[in-house]
Amino acid sequence: MPLKLPIFRKKVLGLLASTDETKVMHISDTPESSYRFIEDLIDKTSPDYIIHTGDLVDNVKLERRPDLLPIYRGALRKLARVLKGSGAKLYVVPGNEDDPELVREFFGDAVVEPGSVIEIEGVRFALGHTWEDVVDKDADFRLYGHNFKLIDRGLNGVLGVNFVLLPSRRTYRVKYPGGTDFDRGYKMWRGL
Asked: Which residue range or ranges hold the Calcineurin-like phosphoesterase domain (predicted)?
């Protein structure tokens, strides 16, 4: 049985699938339960770039539970297969719940430090896990996750999967599936 999507999401996915513009896809704080959704989104939109701003296995809280490292490693392997199999150019920022050494093992040269600024087709993107990593960076877009905070020129990957089209600089957000916040460990939205 095919997945039924809200009308607005269908329109956005149709637009993203049909555009000739360069597509930058931004995700953050991804629990393992969201990997299939992310893979489907990649298949439907064919992004040219994928940026993950940390907490790659957000259902495993390594900061508090380092004993879950084997579970984290297995899930990270799955996500690496999805993202690397996309053919998109990758950028990955480790988050506070990540093991930086394992992230480098699975993503190699795609790993960048929080606060890095990259340029794609003349557009500057500041990449960080938290808003503090990017708020003072000279960039056209500031990509981050970690919590629900919004900042000037910021795109928060916790709130949804962000797409930036270039050269127009139009942005679109596709919401994560229901239950994603619960799988991240949020019982309710904090900070609102």
From this structure: 23-107
Q: Hey, what amino acid is at 10?
A: K
**Number of Cα atoms under 13 Å in the Cβ half of residue 102:** 22
What's the rounded Cα separation, in Å, for the pair 106 and 7? 36
Q: How far is CA 30 from CA 5, 20, 122, in A?
A: 20, 28, 28
Residue 58 and residue 97 in contact, taking contact as beta carbons nearer than 8 Å: yes
| Residue pointed to by tokens 């508090």 | 64
Whether residue 125 contacts residue 138, with contact meaning beta carbons closer than 8 Å, is answered with no
Which residues, in sequence order, are CB contacts of 189 under 8 Å at separation 6+? 148, 181
Lookup: tokens for 142:
């500031």
Instruction: Supply angle C-alpha 132, 165, 179, rounded to 5.
Output: 60
pLDDT digits (tens, 9 = 90+) for 20-51: 999 999 999 999 999 999 999 999 999 999 99
SS3 at position 28: coil
Secondary structure letter of residue 54 according to DSSP: S
Sign of CA dihedral 173, 174, 179, 183: negative
CA 90 to chain centre: 11
Averaged pLDDT of the chain: 90
